[in-house]
Design brief:
This protein has helices at residues 10-21, 26-33, 37-50, 65-98. It has 104 residues and is mostly helical.
Length: 104
């Protein structure tokens, strides 16, 4: 039987983090809210790392302009490398075919 995944909005996550900061443990907050303590710990860690830009939703991190540019360039490099590998393979296939039709 498939379990339904629960989704928590940004305000709920921030409230859980604030409760942890208010001298409560992640386990106490989790029991109070009816969720797993691992979730609360992960939310606290993410909030400490990213601050207000955390909890952007759907697993997509909020990136700065520089980080977006890096991601774009990495994708472009990956595409160029794939194209290069395909062309190398094509050249080797066509160069093998040339020797069959020559009179050597």
């Amino acid at each position: 039987m498939k379990r339904l995944r629960r989704h928590f909005d940004k305000e709920f996550k921030q409230m859980a983090v604030e409760l942890c900061d208010a001298d409560k443990t992640a386990k106490e907050v989790a029991e109070e809210l009816g969720i797993r303590s691992e979730l609360v710990r992960r939310w606290c860690r993410e909030f400490k790392q990213h601050g207000e830009s955390s909890f952007s939703g759907q697993g997509n991190p909020t990136l700065s302009e520089d980080e977006k540019e890096i991601v774009r360039l990495k994708k472009e490099l990956r595409d160029a490398q794939l194209e290069r590998d395909i062309l190398k393979k094509a050249i080797s296939i066509f160069s093998k075919g040339d020797s069959r039709f020559t009179d050597s």
